């Protein structure tokens, strides 16, 4: 019955082996179709070679499912050891990850510190110097307000400081600064870079008070330890830059030494009498009835600034946002490095599995269908006797011709391998 399938029981085992052997001999390159018959004379050496191969592999070759399904595990070549030998993370990645984590922790600490200061300033009482202030402080626990924002006008407790460059100007804090500017030759950038060096810095202060803008009010608050404030509330009252005169010898010496003086900057800063000042700190009432603004005994920073308390709050919120952004940026960098390392490790793991998959495919290629190269060979094509394709591919053949020898197919016998 041409092209039909005749279901026959499993015949003698010898006949099936001969048919299987004949199909394998015909499928090999260099062998003619005549060797595919069931009784060729060249079967002896090939059968012996197959037996020797089976002895090395530990058992008969299974038809489907690979060596793992047959229960006789074939020793495979060792997988490449590049993923095992290579460290999971490179030194550069480890350095980047550690640095990003360290900096993110540092920046987060600074952010939390600024956030606590901002929260405490927002919760602090906002007071002005007036005659009702002593009663407010005396009603508090311990005759002390731990953290307040107090606004007033600067007045000297005794004699005030006079400006060295303005005859009629007086203040309570004075800062004189003498700074040298010079150019230094940078051999790497091949250019001159500017540098500064402080030659002299002098700070003078006298006891001063915060008074009410109202001239009729008599209450005054003494400001203690102004130099312990976060920053001094000074304004520039004098600035002059003096350029030295250089001769030919001086210029030649500058180019030879790589240092060229640019000039000397002389400045004067003062906290002037009558300026509006905001102090943020601890307000205490002493037994003699005097009020004192001093650095906080407990947690909190001491601020003295020109303007109101909202100016201080705005500057602190800006610093808080900066440290928060820096901490988030460093954390994102560390997370990116970590994800990159994990992706690389997963990719190397898949690459190590690919050679094993390819090897399994090469092992099963000899017993696979010559048409689809995926399914096992499942039928015997008669009359040539070739075992070369699966039943699905046989049904899909456009003509009833053997894919190996192009001979006509009389009938198809299903192949049973045990």
From TrEMBL:
UniProt feature, compositional bias: Gly residues: 31-45
Superkingdom of the organism of origin: Eukaryota
Compartmental location: Mitochondrion outer membrane
Catalytic activity: S-ubiquitinyl-[E2 ubiquitin-conjugating enzyme]-L-cysteine + [acceptor protein]-L-lysine = [E2 ubiquitin-conjugating enzyme]-L-cysteine + N(6)-ubiquitinyl-[acceptor protein]-L-lysine
Pfam families xref list: GIDE, zf-C3HC4_3
Top EC group: transferase
Name of this chain's protein: RING-type E3 ubiquitin transferase
Annotated stretches, region: Disordered: 26-82
GO terms for biological process, alphabetical: protein ubiquitination
Keywords from the named record: Membrane, Metal-binding, Mitochondrion, Mitochondrion outer membrane, Transferase, Transmembrane, Transmembrane helix, Ubl conjugation pathway, Zinc, Zinc-finger
Membrane topology: Multi-pass membrane protein
Keyword Transmembrane helix applies: yes
Organism listed in the record: Gallus gallus (Chicken)
GO molecular function: ubiquitin protein ligase activity; ubiquitin-protein transferase activity; zinc ion binding
Domain RING-type: from-to ranges: 369-406
Biased composition (Low complexity): 59-82
EC numbers: 2.3.2.27
């Amino acid at each position: 019955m041409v092209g039909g399938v005749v279901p026959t029981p499993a015949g003698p085992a010898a006949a099936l082996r001969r048919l299987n052997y004949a199909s394998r001999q015909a499928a090999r390159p260099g062998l003619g179709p005549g060797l595919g018959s069931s009784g060729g004379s060249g079967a002896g050496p090939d059968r012996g070679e197959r037996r020797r191969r089976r002895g090395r592999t530990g058992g008969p070759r299974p038809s489907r499912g690979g060596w793992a399904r047959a229960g006789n595990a074939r020793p495979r070549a060792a997988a490449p050891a590049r993923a095992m030998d290579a460290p999971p993370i490179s030194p550069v990645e480890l350095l980047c990850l550690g640095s990003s984590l360290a900096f993110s922790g540092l920046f987060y600490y600074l952010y939390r510190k600024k956030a606590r200061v901002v929260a405490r300033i927002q919760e602090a009482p906002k007071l002005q110097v007036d005659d009702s202030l002593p009663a407010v402080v005396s009603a508090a626990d311990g005759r002390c307000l731990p953290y307040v924002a107090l606004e007033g006008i600067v007045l000297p407790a005794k004699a005030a400081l006079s400006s060295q460059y303005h005859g009629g100007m007086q203040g309570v804090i004075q800062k004189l600064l003498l700074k040298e500017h010079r150019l230094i030759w940078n051999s790497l950038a091949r250019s001159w870079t500017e540098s500064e060096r402080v030659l002299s810095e002098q700070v003078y202060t006298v006891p001063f008070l915060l008074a009410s803008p109202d001239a009729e009010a008599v209450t005054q608050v003494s400001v203690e330890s102004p130099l312990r404030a976060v920053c001094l509330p000074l304004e520039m009252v004098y600035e002059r830059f003096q350029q030295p005169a250089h001769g030919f010898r001086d210029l030649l010496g500058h180019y030879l030494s790589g240092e060229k003086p640019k000039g000397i900057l002389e400045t004067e800063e003062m906290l002037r009498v009558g300026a509006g000042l905001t102090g943020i700190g601890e307000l205490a009432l002493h037994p003699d009835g005097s009020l004192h603004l001093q650095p906080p005994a407990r947690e909190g920073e001491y601020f003295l600034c020109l303007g109101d308390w909202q100016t201080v709050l705005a500057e602190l919120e800006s610093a808080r946002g900066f440290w928060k952004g820096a901490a988030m940026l460093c954390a994102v960098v560390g997370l990116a490095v970590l994800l990159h390392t994990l992706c690389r490790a997963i990719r190397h793991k898949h690459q190590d599995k690919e050679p094993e998959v390819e090897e399994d495919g090469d092992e099963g290629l000899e017993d696979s269908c010559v048409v689809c190269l995926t399914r096992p060979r499942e039928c015997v094509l008669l009359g040539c006797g070739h075992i070369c394709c699966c039943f699905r591919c046989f049904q899909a053949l456009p003509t009833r011709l053997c894919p190996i020898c192009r001979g006509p197919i009389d009938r198809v016998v299903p192949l049973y391998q045990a």
